[in-house]
């Protein structure tokens, strides 16, 4: 089982990016999925998370600008980021609780860099 994230890049302040993260392997099901980020010199923090049923929660710093969604049929989670700010610059990691081989395990994607220029 692995998570593959994509969609990062360089964008000007006020711009948008969409991150994707697909889970692959022998997966029976996926519970909560989420996005975290880690800026240089800072701790990793939760950006947004979504349950299998679609209930989402967000960090206060991104509320109203970011939207998390998922496609359960594709085992994929998305993060639509609008009105990006320089302080959103970070490596973004996807995370998921995946049911495989009869148990639930927590998995991380490899990270994708988002750089927002002022």
Could you outline the blueprint of secondary structure elements for this entry?
Blueprint: E1 2-6, E2 9-12, E3 17-24, E4 29-38, E5 45-50, E6 56-58, E7 66-71, E8 76-81, E9 90-100, E10 103-108, E11 112-117
Question: For the terminal residues, how far apart are their CA atoms?
Answer: 38 Å
Beta-strand segment tally: 11
Helix content: under 10%
Gyration radius, to the nearest Å?
A: 14 Å
Oligomer: single chain
Largest sheet geometry: 7 strands, mixed
Strand content: over 45%
N-to-C series of helices and strands: EEEEEEEEEEE
Q: Mean of the pLDDT scores?
A: 97
Overall structural class, as computed from helix and strand content, comes to: mainly beta
Name the poorly predicted regions.
Answer: none
Q: Rough shape?
A: elongated
Put simply, the count of helices is 0
Notable characteristics:
7-stranded mixed sheet, 118 residues, 4-stranded antiparallel sheet, 0% helix, mainly beta
Describe this structure in words.
- This protein has strands spanning 2-6, 9-12, 17-24, 29-38, 45-50, 56-58, 66-71, 76-81, 90-100, 103-108, 112-117.
- By secondary structure, it is mostly beta strands.
- The chain is built from no helices and eleven strands.
- The radius of gyration is 14 Å and the shape is elongated.
């Amino acid at each position: 089982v692995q998570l593959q994230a994509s969609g990062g890049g360089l964008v000007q302040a006020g711009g948008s990016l969409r991150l994707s993260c697909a889970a692959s392997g022998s997966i029976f099901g996926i519970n909560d999925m989420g996005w975290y980020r880690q800026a240089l010199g800072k701790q990793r923090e939760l950006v947004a998370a979504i349950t299998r049923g679609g209930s989402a929660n967000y960090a206060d710093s991104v509320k109203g600008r970011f939207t998390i969604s998922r496609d359960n049929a594709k085992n994929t989670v998305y993060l639509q980021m609008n009105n990006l700010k320089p302080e959103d610059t970070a490596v973004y990691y996807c995370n998921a609780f995946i049911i495989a081989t009869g148990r639930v395990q927590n998995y991380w994607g490899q990270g994708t860099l988002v750089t927002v220029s002022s």
